C-alpha cells in the first residue's frame, strides 16, 4: 500500500505535467449514481490489491464511437461502441492523434469533444451507509466503485491538502468519503461530496472480510490492451463513425461491438474480447473539457508500496507522492 506522501507526489507531478471494473452480474459495483437527489452514501476506500500501484485507484479511459444503426438492420437507429484508449498504457492512440488536430479549428471543437476519451476511476472499499434500499449486498462486502471526474477531483484535492496527515485508506486512522448527490442545470452534481472530518478504524467485521476475500487487483478491471490488429480495427471503426456509417457486424463484431450484439460463432480473435461497457451514470454538472495536448500523457510510474497495514509515516508517504507527481512532468 502506497503512503500518502507517495500519492501526493505523483498527483503533483501529474498536475505539473499539464494537465466513469464494470458490471459483471455479481453486484460488486456499487451504483452510487442511483441514489436519490439529496441523499448521501458513505464509502470507505481500501488499497489496491496490487502493491505496485502507488494509488488506491486505477484510471480507465474509453472512447465512444457512435454509429448510425447496424448494417442490414433497419430497426436500429443508432448504436454506440466503446473502445479502450491506449493512452492508458502510455502508447499513442490513433483516434486521439487525429482528434487533437481538430481543436485547432473552432468549427471542429464539438466534434473533437464527442470523440475524446472519457475517463473514469476504479476504486474498491466498503459501503458504510447505503441509501439504496433495493441494493443487494453481495457475499463479498468489498465493493468496487466507478468514480467520475467530478468526484475524483474532490478526492484528489483533499489528498494534496497538507492538513490531511494519514492516508485515507489506513486501516486504523483512515477516513470515510461521503458521496452526496444533488443537481445543477439538469445534471447530477456531486460537488458537495467530501471526506469525513474524523478518522476511524475498520471494524472487526470489515477486517474479517478483507482476510476472507482479499483485495481486488484493480487493474484486472481495465480492458485488455489492444494489439496491432485491434488498433487497426479501432481506426477503421473511428473513420466509419465519423463518416456517419452504420456499424458493420461482419467486419468488427469479433473485436468490439455494441451492447446486445453477439460475437460471430467462428470468432478466432480470442486475444482481445470486447471490453464491457461502463455502467450507466448520469452526466455530471461540470463535464471535463479535453485539452488538446500535443503529446500523450505519460503512463503512471510504478513504485514499491508497503503492505496494507496502518501507515507508520504518512508525511513521508505524502512527500513521495508529491515527488512522484513532479517527476512525471
Outline the structure in words.
The chain has a single domain, classed as Replication Fork Single-Stranded Dna Binding Protein (Replication Fork Single-Stranded DNA Binding Protein, Alpha-Beta Complex), CATH 3.90.198.10. It has eight helices and nine strands. The protein has helices at residues 4-16, 94-102, 109-114, 149-159, 204-213, 228-242, 249-252, 314-327; strands at 40-45, 58-67, 79-84, 118-129, 143-147, 177-180, 182-184, 187-189, 194-195. The strands form two sheets. Strands 1, 2, 3, 4, 5, 6 and 9 form a seven-stranded antiparallel β-sheet that branches. Strands 7-8 form a two-stranded antiparallel sheet. Helix 1 (4-16) runs parallel beside helix 8 (314-327). The longest helix is centred in the last third of the chain and has 15 residues, at 228-242. The chain is globular, with a radius of gyration of 21 Å. The two termini are 23 Å apart.
